Amino acid sequence: MSRVKMRLATCLIPLALLACGEAEEPLSQTDVAPAASEPSACKPVVFEETPLTHCIAAPAKHAIAMDLGPDDGAPYRSLAGLAANRAPDAPAVAFAMNGGMYDEAGEPIGYYVEGGERLHELNRADGPGNFHLKPNGVFFGTGDTWRVLTSAKFYDTVSDRPEFGTQSGPMLVIDGELHPDFSEDGESKKTRNGVGVDAAGRAHFVISEAPVSFGKFARYFRDVAETPNALFLDGSVSQLWNAARGRMDNGPSLGPIIVVEIKE
């Protein structure tokens, strides 16, 4: 049975926008894998009095992949689970971050491609929650080319299957404009993470270190990261593995994970 079929066979639980469950005890980077040999791709920043961590993946230095779980079909559900299951000869990890919304079993609820295999089709349905706050979008790429597009534009313009892809929502920035439903600094403030791609093709991953509104978070991508398109990845469950600095976040159970590897 193929990896895709095994994964889909496990997805029998009704859909939910956020996963839940007991988190594993955190493991340090030295416990689970060799430390990255390069300086950290992540740095602490402060934007409008809110602390953030900003990580940059550069095509010349990094490769990006999605990883949901080992070949037996069960999602990792944590960054520590991902780290513990990486092969000894796998490329060093620069950083990894939860990436895309999922159901109670940890399976993606939207478009998901891993290693060129599509595990879930594009989700264009209407519904409740952040995922369905249209426009939502897709972060995807092949080789050194990475992009963020609205789901509608992805559907209309992308015909070739990428090497990796994950759908989430809402979009934070669309063609240089903030999502039309965001207020400047709304009352809903949570730990959040997202990704955008700049004009040079670099992917900017940002996670808040304190609760932040959608409006402020989106402005950071537009005004500081300068990404004309940026996608919200998730909130409340947001976690980061920063290998160079020994950071391994622990929290609610995860689903899809974006892994940024160091090119040899």
Describe this structure in words.
The protein is of the alpha+beta class and 264 residues long. It has 5 helices and 17 strands. The longest helix is centred in the last third of the chain and has 11 residues, at 214-224.
Main attributes?
5-stranded antiparallel sheet, single chain, 264 residues, alpha+beta, 14% helix, disordered N terminus, 5 helices
Question: What is the topological layout?
Answer:
Blueprint lengths: L2 H8 L18 H4 L9 E6 L2 E8 L4 E6 L11 H6 L8 E6 L13 E3 L2 E4 L16 E6 L2 E6 H7 L6 E5 L2 E4 L2 E2 L13 E6 L5 E6 L5 H11 L4 E7 L4 E3 L4 E2 L8 E6 L2
Antiparallel strand pairs: 1-2, 2-13, 3-17, 4-15, 4-17, 5-6, 5-9, 7-8, 7-9, 10-11, 10-14, 12-13, 12-14, 15-16
How far from one another are the termini? 32 Å
Low-pLDDT windows of residues: 1-36
How would you characterize the largest beta sheet? 7 strands, antiparallel
Helix content: 10-25%
- What is Rg? 17 Å
Strand content: 25-35%
Anisotropy-based shape: globular
- Please trace the helix and strand order, writing H or E for each element: HHEEEHEEEEEHEEEEEHEEEE
Briefly characterize the structure.
This protein has five helices and 17 strands. It is α+β, with helices and mostly antiparallel strands.
